Amino acid sequence: MSDFLEVIPLIARDWIVDLFPAQLQWLVHHLITIAVILTVFGTFFAFTTVAERKLLGRLQNRLGPNRAGLPKLSILPFHLKHKLWGLTQPFADAVKALTKEDVVPDAADKVLHFLAPVCIVAFSLLGFAVLPFGRALIPVELDAALLYFFAAGTATELAIFMAGWGSRNKYSLLAAMRALAQLISYELPLILSVVPVVLVVGTLSLSEIAAAQGGWTLGFLPHWHVFTPWGFAGFIIFLIAALAESNRSPFDLPEAESELIAGHLTEYSGFKYALFFMAEYFGLTALSGLGVTIFLGGWQAPFAFLEFIPSYLWFMIKLAGMIMFFIWVRGTLLRLRIDQLTRLSWQFLVPLALINLVNGAFWALTPDWTGAMLAARWGVSAAIVVIPFLILGRRLSGDRTPRTYRYA
Amino acid sequence: MIALAIIALLTIAAASAAFLLRNLIHSALLLVGAWAGIAAFYLWAGAEFVAFAQVLVYVGAVSMVVLFAVLLTRQGATTAPVEYDSLKRAVLGFITAGGVGGLLFGAILGSPLDVHTANPAPAVSVKELGLLLMGPHAAALLIVGVLLTVALLGAVVIAAVDKPEDAP
Amino acid sequence: MSPLQLCLLFSSLLFCVGLAGALSRSNTILVLLGIELMLNAANLNFIAFWRYGPHPEAGTGLLFVLFAIAVAAAEAAVGLALIIAIHRHRKTIRLQEANSLKG
Fold first, then answer.
1. pLDDT in tens, A200-258
2. What CATH code is carried by the domain that includes residue B70?
3. Interface contact flag, B73 C29, Cβ < 8 Å
4. C-alpha angle C53/C55/C58, rounded to 5°?
């Protein structure tokens, strides 16, 4: 039964593909994959925005959006009075964005101003192509999938530059430069935090990395990478770098809506602004998906008795959990200053990620330590990251006293 | 073959347009497009790893360095009239490039090239590539690492402002 | 025409575009980019000969291109740093005006 649930999407796809003539089948096959990814993650994006607004509202002791229900349609014989808990809010937002005036500055570089939002959405969607969504569900099986993911991610930097330059507004350009400096600084810890996994598993293929995390110790401890010392450290570094890469609070200085106007998005309005917004969420979702695949076991179930739930549902549950965590962080932490931001990356995360790389190498060299040696393996591995973490943390915060709040 | 022709046409069109335009930013962005086209050629030829490395290095890193350099050295309007001196250089440049191109084309079309493997593309997996890099070519890898470090330090030293009075 | 010949024509055409750009433009950044493009055209040849050569499984062409990409990145970084230094001292990056050592 669960095997059947596992392959239902594939059966549905093959059934549709078979309706077309043989020459067109490869094209239809890929188009269906693309359409499914766009629909699933488009909907996911829409409901992420509601979840974010509602959760942030709750974190700040207010209700969040709860008014948008269904409009009164004259073709229907009845009218639904219920507000549906505001769940139709994203569709109302989409209509609003589409009907707003699209203002293009007179002096703007029209081509680049138009291309920037298009490019950024296209590039941020590229990463989804290689994520294994389930045991049998992977859009494109690539040998160098991880490298592809990061290569696709770097292209969004160009789109940010285009937005800043194309607006012909010096504040947009300055903000774009700040955003680029941030993205370049955090790309390094992001990639370095993933390398230990590649070392230990011995492949760049994401489906093999997900498959390598199957199985349980003593029947309940899953073999996810996050439950090893190096994997835990790598996951934390990955989380921080992913927050910064996707411009999320507390690293949202490029567009810091309460201080700057909107950074490189100042001259964008209407649907183009919505496209940037969408790209930000797509980027966040793709990076969370990568984090889930690499550290949180991908599509694997946490317990053996829960394996009857299809793997793609497990992936989506973990993905939603990651996104909720990011929203929680946004509601909790304060925004950093730009010097704190770059210092955190270059003085703390990059050295720790490099040390963690050594840790991964140690783990890869000692797979045959058992019994008492297994405890030693865990101890040494934990020591390799915890001791530098303590020393670095002490040194970096040594000259700063704890902050005192006089009026809070 | 058709895919290759399309990739080649787009890449060459982007590269030529880059050198014909007067707007430096447009030139740089078009060249990034040409680099992406070259990566597409690598993909077509079956060299996946090299294609992604090309995108990562050129579209991700070199393009950023170029764009920052363009912004740091920008000076006012870019619509000054073309001087006679530049025009002479341009004509000479085109003649030289045309000559070299003619020579290369003649050599390629005139020489007998036997093609060994046709389809499918030969597969060198990432793992094999890594083993090659770490085994027989480890020395070269080390040297490239040292070179990159030295280049990074050199670039910082050259571009840094040493004394406050040197600052622009 | 064999696919190998098409690849070679593609790369030599790209090389010529880079050469023409490097020789005819007077902005130093564009000259550097022209040289960079010529380097890329050479890389294309390595891949083409790897793909259609007798021993693709050896992967030598791939490795050479990887090393060439790394060296090109270093070259671009140093070259652009030099351009920024020249701009700081002379307030211009036109090639013809950096001629104080001309005899």
1. 998 899 998 998 888 887 777 888 988 888 999 999 999 999 999 888 888 888 777 77
2. 1.20.120.1200
3. yes
4. 125
Total domains present in chain C:
1
> Which of A144, A161, A203 shows the shortest C-beta gap to B49?
A144
Any long-range contacts for B25-30 (C-beta under 8 Å, 24+ apart)? B25/A109, B25/A112, B25/A165, B25/B67, B25/B70, B26/A112, B27/C30, B27/C33, B28/B63, B28/B66, B28/B67, B28/B70, B28/C29, B28/C33, B29/A112, B29/A158, B29/A162
Residue C103 lies inside a defined structural domain of this protein: no
Nearest chain B alpha carbon to C21: B19
Residue B90 counted as domain residue: no
Tell me, what's the ipTM? Answer: 0.90
Pick A184's closest partner by Cβ from B52, B56, B64: B64
Q: In this structure, what CATH number is given to the domain that contains residue C37?
A: 1.10.287.3510
Chain B touching partners, 3 or more CB pairs below 8 A: A, C
In this complex, which of C2, C24, C85 lies closest to B89 when CB atoms are compared? Answer: C24
Residue A354 in contact with partner chain B when CB distance is under 8 A = no
A206 in a structural domain: yes
Prediction pTM value: 0.89
Say if the Cβ atoms of B124 and C6 lie within 8 Å.
no
C63 to chain B, any CB pair closer than 8 A? The answer is yes
Interface present between A and B (3 or more CB pairs within 8 Å): yes
Q: Which residues contact A250 (CB under 8 A, 6 or more apart)?
A: A243, A329, A330, A333, A334, A335, A336
